[in-house]
Amino acid sequence: MEITHRRLNRIDILIISGRMQAVESSELQAQLNRLFAEGRYRIVLDLAHLEYVNSPGLRVLIEARKRAREWKLSEFDRGDVRIVNLPPRIKEVFDLTGFTSLFHIYDDMVDAVGSF
Amino acid sequence: MIHESTLEVPARLEALASISNFVVDAARGAGLDEHAVWEVQLAVDEAVTNAIVHGYHEHELRGTLSISIAQEDGKFVVSLRDQGAPFDPSRVPEPDLVSPLEQRKTGGLGLFLMRKLMDDITFEREANVNVLRMTKRLPPSGLRYIALSGRIDASAAPTVQRTVHHAMKSGGRWIVVDMAQVTFLSSSGLRALLMLNREMQKSRGDLRLCSLQPHVAEVFHLTGFDQIFPLYSSRHEAAASFPQA
Questions:
Q1: Burial class of residue A49 (count of CB atoms within 10 Å of its CB; 0-12, 13-18, 19+)
Q2: Per the CB < 8 Å rule, is A97 touching B95?
Q3: B215-238 pLDDT per residue, tens
Q4: Which are the contacts of A6, defined by CB distance < 8 A and separation ≥ 6?
Q5: CA distance A2 to chain B (A)
Q6: Residues of chain A positioned with their CB less than 8 A from the CB of B12
Q7: Helix or strand or coil: residue A42?
Q8: Which of B49, B112, B113 lies nearest to residue A22, judging by beta carbons?
């Protein structure tokens, strides 16, 4: 697995590629925690090249979103972890585990970034 | 039993990638399609992760795991043996698939996925060893996939016929026709498929259709041909509908 980080003004994009099993999930968690520690809570995860994920990875995603949502400047300006480009296999895991409805998922990076 | 192979690794999360590779190679070699291979990989990954985290790490235990692969009675069988703490599946909570984000619990997802993705799983404790057996039915031999595309009308019918005949000659007995790229189906196209279906059944095989675009599926519903041709939403589902090997 590889994580590429792109920093925009208000938003951080993490581009995750390859296979995410338990060990790699911890790496993602560490990277997200670093962003939170810097006060960066508006995050877009680009999963276009994520080939594989299982429940440890899903747990990291859900905990990250919970944490990001707790940060808010106002009722209308809160942190979030949003997802763009969900490949079919990953979507299948999301569907099986009831994750699809837990995230804002976009097909286009511009939409995902613009949603904040 | 045709053959069995075993991989033994230290009970550490770093071993997951090599376990995956081992299982994926074996599953492909056994003739599972790519979707089924992925399902097996995911189920095994969940099982091994659980065994390492809950069986070893949480109890500060160290040890090894063994993963055995066998083919028996038309099934692909993965057996996982660990010497971690005794595991009782009845104590794992049902997964929470519906609560809103703030209240969502994430326990039990691994076991849930294993049950969803495999055809059967059993847990046993033999002496000091947890034995988990997961099975996946193998596709019948003679399974073939054919993908059609574009307009299936009178002029395309002979091509469809040739393609299916070719698959039959090469030993194909159970044929899945993937219609995902088919944009139009005329009555001639429909008739060609029906004739081929009869022909397959006469030679004690069968032909199934999958992944139809909605307006193509509509042709089947309107004409009542969906009574003759059950329609499947994916290759995988269509393949699973054949009598198993």
A1: middle
A2: yes
A3: 999 999 999 998 888 899 998 889
A4: A12, A13, A15
A5: 15
A6: none
A7: strand
A8: B49
